[in-house]
Specification:
- By secondary structure, the protein is of the alpha+beta class.
- The chain has one domain.
- It is built from three helices and three strands; from the N terminus they run αβββαα.
- A three-stranded antiparallel sheet has the order 1-2-3, covered by helices on one side.
- The protein is globular, with a radius of gyration of 12 Å.
- The chain starts with 8 loop residues before the first helix and ends with a helix.
């Protein structure tokens, strides 16, 4: 999904395949965002354009049902997308 959304390449490089979200404790912070850890799950929250990114991600998830395996898209990430999109 990140390939269709215009973003600074360093953001995609920093995030990798970590799902979006802000659950748990901050374990890493850099100029592009924060990485959180909750138990064995990591989440990434970007510093800027959270809402636009969340809306674009939700659009893909709705239009292409089943495109993301639950292992890579935990419910906490979907909850974060909905909240960030509304803000």
């Amino acid at each position: 999904m990140h390939a269709i959304f215009a973003a600074d390449s360093s953001v995609n490089g920093s995030r990798g395949n970590i799902p979006f979200g802000n659950k748990g404790k901050v374990v890493e912070e850099d100029q592009v965002g924060w990485t959180y850890r909750q138990g064995g799950q990591r989440f990434f929250e970007p510093r800027i354009n959270r809402g636009a990114l969340a809306r674009a991600s939700l659009y893909i998830l709705v239009c292409y049902a089943g495109c993301a395996h639950p292992q890579y898209l935990p419910k906490e990430s979907v909850e974060w997308m909905i909240e960030a999109a509304q803000e």
